Amino acid sequence: MQPEHRLRVRPGEKVPVDGHQVALGSNGLLADLNVAVDELAGQAEHLRRQGQTVMFVAVDGRLAGLLGVADPIKQSTPEAVRILDDGGARIVIVTGDSPSKRQRWSPSCW
After folding, report:
1. pLDDT band at residue 105, thresholds of 50, 70 and 90?
2. Do 83 and 65 share a structural domain?
3. The pLDDT of residue 39
4. Counted domains in the chain
5. Do the strands 15-17 and 20-25 form a parallel or antiparallel pair, or are they unpaired?
6. Residue among 67, 24, 23, 25 at smallest CA distance from 43
7. Best CA proximity match to 69, nearest among 56, 88, 84
8. Is the same domain home to 23 and 62?
9. pLDDT digits (tens, 9 = 90+) for 49-65
10. Exposed end of the chain (fewer CB within 10 Å): N or C?
11. What is the DSSP string of 31-51?
12. Segment 36-45 mean pLDDT
């Protein structure tokens, strides 16, 4: 792989890497690129249930793998939410994430 270089990439674009076209993104993005993700769907759902964001990787138009990225809840969050709740604040979680991730973030799960 070549030394690091800066690229400006827009969603849906493939990136050239050592002579190969690489795409990284959601199952929707890969579907737009006509790359099926079915063979890794089970692993992807497992990662989502753990609260991870899943990104699929395609190389030269073929599924090559997936990545799970986690943004864990800070240790101080449950106590902070309890303090706010005890003070009468209305706690609302607003997110565009998947239902499995929303459930994992729910205060009832802490």
Report:
1. low
2. no
3. 96
4. 2
5. antiparallel
6. 67
7. 56
8. yes
9. 888 889 999 999 999 99
10. N
11. HHTT---GGGHHHHHHHHHTT
12. 95
